[in-house]
Amino acid sequence: MRFEKYEGIGNDFVLVESSVTRAEAIRLCDRRKGIGADGVLRVDVGSRAMEVFNSDGSVALMCGNGLRCVAEYLHRRGAPEEFEVQTASGPHSVKVHGQGDVEVWMRAATSNPLEIPLTRAEPAIDFALSEDFGAIKVTAVGVGNPHLVTFSPLGEEARERLAPRLQALDWFPDGANVGFASLQGGRLALSVFERGVGWTQACGTGACAAAAAAVWTGRARAKRPLEVSLPGGSLQITVGDPGERIRMRGPATFVFAGDVER
User: Fold this and answer.
1) Is 69 considered catalytic here?
2) Which of 29, 63, 69, 208 does the annotation list as catalytic?
3) pLDDT tens digits for 72-96?
4) Which one, of 54, 118, 63, 101, lies nearest residue 249 by Cα?
5) Which domains can be identified in the chain, with CATH numbers?
6) Nearest by Cα to 54 from 44, 41, 43, 64
């Protein structure tokens, strides 16, 4: 099976055009016995479509960093500078600016419990959890997949302890991606505990969710690019008016190519 390895600010992927089983995705992502990656992206060049497998073999509806990598992959195979990529969460417009600089139009962020989805009836924006969680405040955001963002100041030990508990919060029928965010000198610092992956160098949808939460809670302004800094690098995120797609711009880098036995 032919593959290419790509990364977007440290979030790395194996891109293939062949069909992939859950077991194959797990093996390909294994960093000791496989190629090593956060996920596998199956690409259909003809229809310009992508399918996302996490490193544990589970299927994700969307992956922002992966979308940029797929856009670069397709552009190298003849796609124009601007086109649409089909995903499980709908079509997404992309623009390749050159030299691995890719801009994508993500889903509009939503706080609607039915769209995230949540089991609770009301939106959760800077919602104070119980003392059992340390009384931290959280915001639930949907951007094609579910996210929970907190701006509460927490040390590394508290984050390590709380991340899996927040991910399994009973609001989320399918679990959540958990983002720990803080504003630092005009930029948004973010670390993400991702479903099916764990702590990751970068999460594109997480960056969009955190930027949206920052705008909703008055920590940042809409319609202005916000630098979101993750362990693997930075993205430029622009949150527009309610219902408007979020713009994300950042690198998508080819790493190497090869063949692997199935």
Assistant:
1) no
2) 63
3) 999 999 999 999 999 998 999 999 9
4) 101
5) 2-105+250-259 (3.10.310.10), 127-245 (3.10.310.10)
6) 41
